[in-house]
Amino acid sequence: MRVFVDTSALYALLDEDDANHTPAGSWLTSEARDESVLLATHAYVIVETAALVHRRLGRAAVRVFFDAFVPSLSVLYVDEELHRRSAAAYLAGLDSGVSFVDRVSFETMRSLGIDHAFAFDRDFETEGFRIVPSP
Fold first, then answer.
1. Is residue 131 within 8 Å of 16, Cβ to Cβ?
2. Taking a C-beta distance cutoff of 8 angstroms, is the pair 53, 62 a contact?
3. Above 80 in pLDDT, residue 34?
4. What is the C-alpha separation between 46 and 34, in angstroms, rounded?
5. Would you give the DSSP letter of residue 78?
6. What is the pLDDT of residue 44?
7. Which of 15, 21, 65, 121 is the most buried (most CB within 10 A)?
8. Which pLDDT value is given to residue 31?
9. Strand intervals (E) in 17-67
C-alpha cells in the first residue's frame, strides 16, 4: 500500500511541541514495521517542509529532516503536465483556501491511485482521501 506523506505530518514528527507529534510518531512507528507500506511524497512537499522547518525550528532540524526523513520517502518529481493540472485546479479553487502544494498533492494522489494520506490537514479528507492516523 502507498501512503502519501504531507507537510503537516512531517512537521509534526519534527516538532516535539506540535499537538500532532505523538500521534504522528505512533502511527509511523506502527506502520514502519509493515514493509508493504510505501511512504511517498512529491518534491514540492519537500521544499515546503524544509522552508517551514527552517523558519520555525532552525538549521539543526532541517538537517534532521534531510538526513533522517527524506531518505525514507519515495520522492516523486512534478513534471510539466502535473504542474499545469495542479495550477488549473488551484486557480479554479482560489476561494477555498487550499494551498498550491496541496493541489499538487491531490493531483499526484489521484494520478497514482493513492487514497491514504499521512496528514493532519483536513483538506485531504475534504478532497475524498482517507487520513491516517484517523482522527
1. no
2. yes
3. no
4. 24
5. P
6. 98
7. 65
8. 67
9. 38-42
Average pLDDT over residues 36-41: 92
Mean pLDDT of 44-65: 98
Cβ–Cβ < 8 Å for 118, 110: no
* CA–CA gap between residue 118 and residue 10 (Å, rounded): 9
pLDDT at 49 over 80: yes
pLDDT for the residue 32: 61
- Residue recorded with cell 517551514: 52
AA letter at 129: F
Strands 116-118 and 74-76: unpaired
**Complete domains list, the chain, with CATH:** 2-132 (3.40.50.1010)
Phi, psi of 65 (to 5 degrees): -55, -50
- Candidates 4, 1, 3; CA nearest to 105 is 4
Q: Which residues pair with 118 in a beta bridge?
A: 5, 132
The CA–CA distances, whole Å, from 24 to 27, 40, 133 equal 5, 16, 7
The answer to whether the predicted template modeling score (pTM) of the entire model surpasses 0.70 is yes
